[in-house]
């Protein structure tokens, strides 16, 4: 059991520069994980150390797609509220995309096809050229939505010329959108959302092999039909497919239901060695893997993509949502879906854990024990402890913010209960709501020190009881004086 959600939000959102990343690239899931400890054994710094970003990444940018390229740049595109053009940004860091100059590389036609509803662009680099996949309606029939492709051979797609490769021809000429492409075992696939009147209302997910970046081959296969209650609120929808691969499996995230606060994400999984064009190869989650969260103030998260952190060692979830629940009129006319990013974690069984859409501001981290590296600091019945295989994930996520006591201190705020902090009380560590008192501010503030047992880690010294450190003992957390090497190991954590 976790504490009840706090009312209001904390006033401090400033992250301290304790965690940083460096540049690298990756097109599939980043290598991550660390060996499980036995007894008092310890591991080196985690293979996937913490990365933090500050949300929102881009206001009024829906359906975001970020491509990490080998030239050291991130390339970012998304739907603009006017639904009339395709824009690109690039930066050497994910956070840098927030302030990067935006370039319009293509504008809708004034008549005929591709003349309205320019939606959900994705940028990919295939065979030495850039491609943008997007959906568009016709100028005289805005709901005649179909998928289209642009091509650019320049090294920099923001300055190069773009050629229209035209509409992707599908066997069924019906409402279709959200095309994405990926490669498994040398075979390139196209996945998209489409309505088939013979199947029923709404959109299903389809998969086909590709002959080239703008042409499918063979017969498409329907791999997902929205049937669960969480897939059919407002509209019957499966759309926005996005693929990440890891450990011999293909994970395909998708979005479901209407584009309001009911919008959410599900997940399909297949073995990379299976016949992906056999619908039976895919297994769908029974429930959403990512959905609205009132405590963090995030509504309708979805239409995601995946990228990789600057150091190449963490996978990053890219998605849009809104900062409010209630919408006046058609959600498609509301311009305030915004692009957000946060670290994607992986469970011990090799499946992705999306967690929750975290609150605005700096993204949280996890603290793993130095001497029990499969155990993470988490809250349980208000008490702070270390556990393995924490579920829900957000119970083990904490935002590093400016210390409530001021000065050079930091405080550790619960990710899923904003306004609750790790604090010591009679030297036991609890997760409690800030009551505004000086006592609480002191008890919930720490000096972040270089790890006492490992310089790659971090140790937290109590601000109001110098010489006492946050440490685990019997897997519960305390603030204690340290005298032995074991004590110092118990007081050292790695950020993930």
From TrEMBL:
Site features described as Important for catalytic activity, responsible for pKa modulation of the active site Glu and correct orientation of both the proton donor and substrate, chain residue numbers: 178
CDD domains per the UniProt record, alphabetical: beta-trefoil_ABD_ABFB, GH43f_LbAraf43-like
Pfam families: AbfB, Glyco_hydro_43
UniProt superkingdom: Bacteria
Active site per the UniProt annotation: 63 (proton acceptor), 239 (proton donor)
A GO biological process held by the record: L-arabinose metabolic process
Annotated signal peptide: 1-37
Alphabetic keyword roster: Glycosidase, Hydrolase, Signal
Listed GO MF terms: alpha-L-arabinofuranosidase activity
Domain Alpha-L-arabinofuranosidase B arabinose-binding: 366-494
Similarity-based family: Belongs to the glycosyl hydrolase 43 family.
Name under which the protein is recorded: Alpha-L-arabinofuranosidase B arabinose-binding domain-containing protein
Annotated organism of origin: Streptomyces minutiscleroticus
